[in-house]
Amino acid sequence: MTAPAMAINPNQTQPFLQQVMERSGQNLTACYQCRRCAAGCSVGDETDYFTPNLLIRMVVLGDRDQALSNQLVWKCVSCYTCGTRCPNDIQTARITETLKKMAKEEHLEPLQPKVAEFHDAFVRSGLRWGRVNEMEFMGAYEMKFALRKIKTREFGAIMDEIKTQARLGMEMTRLRRMHFGFLMAKGRKEIKALQRKSKQRATH
Q: I need a labelling partner for 36 at 20 to 30 A (CA). Which of 15, 44, 139, 195 fits?
């Protein structure tokens, strides 16, 4: 399979590129397509050939639709291998996170609903308590998953998910990696204020 074709949209190129660079804090114009990031991408085989260098190229060319809706945005695990290999220190993980937020703001259907649900539950828990409490966060995530599957009457998928998470939970408990305590951090108002500020900045 060859790499996907890219559409050039001159009208969107500059504003879209500028928006992504400002929100991600990455200088995408420094990318000269050496493909070192692609060679080390840990999910490259799972993203339909949407490698980090191609994602950057899409943004530079103004291909907004493809940039906001591709498997790399949803399957990136933020391992930062791409940034470690990049000679110009471009952290593609921050770009995929930015594009994920932009896709959500535009109410685009996520290509990986479970990733979107996990991301949403994680962020909400962190904002609510100042840190992520594993039991509360995973409970919220599993509830989102179950409600989505109930709508499509996929009850078998719900049971499979419960079994999988139960096995994972028991193994993590055995290894003392599951924390049942409930903790709150100081400065929760400041964290929420930072989020509001970031949202305001994104809309300007």
A: 15
- Residue whose structure tokens are 């300007």: 204
Tell me the C-alpha to C-alpha distance, in Å, between residue 107 and each of 2, 101, 116, 125, 186: 29, 10, 12, 21, 32
Phi, psi angle pair for 86, to nearest 5°: -65, 125
Rounded to an integer, the average pLDDT of 12-41 is: 92
Return all residues near 139 (Cβ < 8 A) that are at least 6 apart. Answer: none
Taking alpha carbons only, the member of 145, 126, 148 closest to residue 137 is 126
pTM, 2 dp: 0.78
* Alpha-helix runs per DSSP H in the chain: 10-24, 36-40, 52-61, 64-68, 71-75, 81-85, 92-105, 113-129, 134-151, 155-174, 188-203
**Rounded Cα distance, 162 and 11, in Å:** 48
Q: Which amino acid is at 67?
A: A
Domain boundaries, the chain: 10-105, 113-203
8 Å CB contact between 108 and 102? no
What is the Cα–Cα distance from 116 to 74, expressed in whole angstroms?
A: 8
Residue 77 is encoded by which pair of tokens?
A: 């695990």
Closest alpha carbon to 180 in 135, 143, 141, 126: 135
Helix/strand number for the chain, H first, E second: 11, 0
- Say what percent of the chain tops pLDDT 90: 64
What is the distance between the alpha carbons of residues 143 and 56, in angstroms, rounded to a whole number? 35
Q: How far apart are CA 101 and CA 95, in angstroms?
A: 10
